[in-house]
Amino acid sequence: MRPTSYPRHPNVPNALSIDEVEPGVTYVTYVPRKKVLQMGQFITAPMYDEEDRWTAQALVGKEEVETTVFLHDAGIAVSGNGQEWTDAVTIKL
């Protein structure tokens, strides 16, 4: 059973949480005060992959290449142990 709400990256109040990832959401992933890592648009809802990681499909970059976004790596999901966040953060545009 999925939780009714998911944690948000603690360093950025407007960071996306898992329950906000859905088809059509345009986003940017960045490391605060450093650099933009990726811009794109989600084309699927979040799902677990075969290794129990949260993922979503997205169209990324100017060429809109379809790719898998690992939500923990993008700062949208906390680590599997529920303790760690990456430096990256993703916000809705």
Structural commentary:
The protein has 93 residues and is mainly beta. It has one domain (18-92). 0% of the residues lie in helices and 35% in strands. It contains no helices and six strands. It has strands at residues 26-31, 35-42, 47-48, 54-60, 65-70, 89-92. Strands 1, 2, 3, 4, 5 and 6 form a six-stranded antiparallel beta sheet that branches. A hairpin with a 3-residue loop joins strand 1 (26-31) and strand 2 (35-42). It is globular.
SSE topology string: EEEEEE
Number of helices: 0
Radius of gyration: 12 Å
Strand content: 35-45%
The parts where pLDDT drops under 50 for at least 5 residues are none
Q: Got a strand count?
A: 6
- The level of helicity is under 10%
Q: Biggest sheet, open or closed, and with what strands and sense? A: 6 strands, antiparallel
Category from helices, strands and their pairing: mainly beta
